[in-house]
């Protein structure tokens, strides 16, 4: 499987650092206005789905592999809240939630953006969007 590192990132980072860097990129993408999210996903018709999958692809291994053990309880709580909101959206089994139009029109996505901005603030991560298109990569 090809390894996709963030643009300009060093290639000698350990797996935990890479996981955290991609988690940061995915949260930054979730925090952006809908118009920027569409660009971040390469104008995908299922931009919401791609954004959610990308977050899950990095949050789950970060949690599982102990990459978040240095986080403060408030930081972990904010990440868990964001994950729970995306899980709640999945439980609705409404395929329209994951389409690009939903990013602009659905209240769930406003909530996701607000929660992602809270994570960014608590983690002291940059607020700017990741370089488009956002690379979707599922870690092993």
TrEMBL record:
This is Uncharacterized protein. It comes from Deinococcus ficus.
